[in-house]
Amino acid sequence: MMIDRTAATLFAAVLVLPAVASGQAASSSAASSSASSSSSSSVSTSGGASSSVVTGGHWSSEGRTGSYRVVVAQGGAAPAAAHVRVEWLAEANPPGRGAEVVAAVEPRLPFGQEGARLGVELQSMGPGQARITLTGPAPAARAVFIATTPGHLAAADGAS
Is 15:70 a contact under the CB 8 Å cutoff? Predict the structure, then answer.
């Protein structure tokens, strides 16, 4: 099932990571994995809110190319709510200029968003496709999406 970008709930607040916005970064880490050619980073605040960002894979559409980025923002208040945003980033042209977000979708999670602390994995499936796996604390809390061209996100295992 394709998720129409205009029908999906988009949010911009997650682009400003909570720790950056508040200036209260308690911890920050970054790692990269050559096996899946993706990179990730996370930021936490003293209030318990955190954001994770994973970037990887490659897409090509209408003469443009870029990568996928998944942002997971998790609130620190009880009950904590997790918000997921999948973004399609166009390669900077000219080099040195920031990447442009050409499309973004917030998928609905089959296990809900309230109280969830989510893990995220982005795996390239070859040119033009990436598998995004979101996992929660419960064994059944798992959703898999396939990202293709900008704005197109398909649920791979029953998520919508």
Answer: no
Q: Which residues, in sequence order, are CB contacts of 129 under 8 Å at separation 6+?
A: 57, 146, 147, 148
pLDDT tens, residue by residue, 68-121: 999 998 876 655 678 899 999 998 777 778 889 999 999 988 877 666 678 899
Dihedral sign for Cα 116, 132, 120, 141, please. positive
pTM for the whole structure? 0.68
Q: Which of 102, 110, 96 is nearest to 143 (CA)?
A: 110
What confidence tens digit (pLDDT) does each residue in 1-15 have? 333 332 222 232 233
Q: Which of 145, 150, 148, 149 is nearest to 160 (CA)?
A: 145
